[in-house]
Design brief:
The protein is α/β, with parallel strands linked by helices and 197 residues long. The chain is built from 6 helices and 9 strands. Helix 5 links the parallel strand 5 and strand 6.
Length: 197
Amino acid sequence: MGRQQLVARFLEVHITVIQHLVDARIFPSYQTAWRWMNRCAKKQNGWKPRYLGGVLLNHTGRTAKVYCNGWTPNSRTLLHEVMLTDELLPYCACDILRGPKVDPELRPDATVFTNSPLHTVQTGELHYEMDNGTEHLEQIRERMEIVGQYIDPVVWVFQQPERMKEVMRFSTSNSYFKLYREGEFFDRSGEVVFLRP
């Protein structure tokens, strides 16, 4: 598969900043990816990356351009979606559903289809929920009651360990937890379940 097909496939699913294309090993360096994306964006005909806006990334201190060709999230959730892409990068080789393609009843932030031992034999689905600390704990509790009715495991990703521990207290048996940009997954008792693939 050529580079354009790899980028097009990635942008069909993910809300992406240029660094994601490097982290997914589509490009060897940020500079190469940046030049390639700019060249494609200026083309008159053919495939082009679709620019959605910019987000301020804390770890770089600069505004990063955000792209996606497959769907358009709410502009207020761009940072949330970019952070979710960070979490889903280890699953790039798997089928992933995001945005309007996820289960309309469960409505997770993303669904990953993989053969990890954590996943249920029946479906092979792993749902992701990204917490940016903007929802009240009561809203998360209500959300957990909904996802607790399903057999598929749900990974809740948190930025603050204190908030994660608080939510673990009222979690359901199909809930797993991790901290943003960390490799360990925990069950609701705080035991490590498995590491990133």
